[in-house]
Design goal:
Elements (H helix, E strand, L loop, with lengths): L1 H21 L12 H4 L11 E3 L1 E4 L2 E4 L8 E8 L8 E8 L4 E11 L5 E11 L12 E7 L10 E7 L5 E10 L4 E4 L5
Antiparallel strand pairs: 1-4, 2-3, 4-5, 5-6, 6-7, 7-8, 8-9, 9-10, 10-11
Amino acid sequence: MLRLMRILAGFAVCALSASALLAQSTTAPVKVNPSAVVKKAGTPPPANATKGTSIGKGKATVNTANSASDTDSIWAEKIDIDGDGNVDEAQALWDDEDKVLYYAKDGTFTCMNGGTGTGGMIVAVYAEGNVYGKPANSGWWVAEVDKDECKSQASGLVGCKFNGSGAPTACGVAVIDNKTDDITIAAVRN
């Protein structure tokens, strides 16, 4: 009986450790407020928009082509995509089939620790009636960081998903899924 209790106690400790490892955070090493992009969701592209199939740079790139002949509207715009108070030279892409609006920039961003980082960034917002059934104005953002930049443990993408009010719901190491116009947040330690 004592041996059974020790085994059960061992399983309980393992389960608690696993749940701590798999817990997601609601903060990321990069500070982003996507409110300016959220306000644009669902607005038609400007008349000078051209056609394209991808947006972003480096690991922070999204391909929106649903087929070989599918193109979407793309244009340049000055907008504060990360909410740091600075107007950015950004690219915008409207995925009209899936109803997702993307903005991307390559430049500086603010770290949660007050420093700055440099790299590619994408903010994606689901518009009303998107094919994924996501709440309107919800979405995600990613930023490409170097190891130790913004106190990041490794180089790669970090990001957050956010709800229709812009509040983060899950943050951490991010992987872009071009088929679902979404990101996956990897498990992080709290």
